[in-house]
Amino acid sequence: MPEAKERITDAELEVMQVLWKAKAPMTQAQIKAALCSRNGDTVKTLLRRLCQKQAVAQEKQEVYYYRPLVGQEELRCCRMKKLIDQLFEGSARDMAAALVRNEQLCHQDLEELEQMFSGLWEEEK
After folding, report:
1. What is the torsional sign of CA 30, 34, 39, 41?
2. DSSP codes joined into one string, the chain
3. Which pTM was predicted?
4. How many CB atoms are located within 10 Å of the residue 44 CB?
5. What is the C-alpha separation between 67 and 58, in angstroms, rounded?
6. pLDDT (tens digit, 0 to 9) for every residue of the chain, 125 residues total?
7. What is the end-to-end Cα distance of the chain in Å, rounded?
8. CA separation for the pair 18, 35 (Å, rounded)
C-alpha cells in the first residue's frame, strides 16, 4: 500500500498547505476560512480523507483540531521523485536540463545552484 504522501490529491494538498503554514493545530472552521474557495462540506471530506490516509491527525477538545503528520519537505521530495521517474525516466539531470531549456531557471538561478552544490560538495570532504 503506498504511503500517505504518495496518495495525497491536489485538493488535499491545499488543506495540507494551510496546516503547514499555521504551524499549530487548527479547527475545521479555521481551515475553511483559510481556504475561502471551498465550502465546509468539502473541507470536512478532505480532512476525513487525510485522516484516513494518516497524513493528518485529529484531536478532540471542545471541537476537533487538526495537525499534519506528513511534513512539507517530505511530501515535496516524494512528489519530485515521482515526477522525475514519470517524466524523465529517473534522470534529475534531464529534468534540470529541461528547466533550463524551457527558461524556468535563469542564469542567476544557475549561479546560485552552483554555489549551493559547491558548498555541499565541500561539506562531504
Report:
1. negative
2. ---HHHH--HHHHHHHHHHHHH-S-EEHHHHHHHTTTS-HHHHHHHHHHHHHTTSEEEEESSSEEEEESS-HHHHHHHHHHHHHHHHHTT-HHHHHHHHHHTTSS-HHHHHHHHHHHHHHHHHH-
3. 0.77
4. 15
5. 7
6. 356 666 899 899 999 999 999 989 999 999 999 998 766 669 999 999 999 999 999 999 999 999 999 999 999 998 999 999 999 999 999 998 999 899 888 889 989 988 988 887 776 66
7. 39
8. 8
Instruction: HSE, CB side, 13 Å, CA atoms: give it for residue 93.
Output: 0
The cell for 117 is 552544490
Region of 4 please: left (phi>0), alpha (psi -120 to 50) or beta: alpha
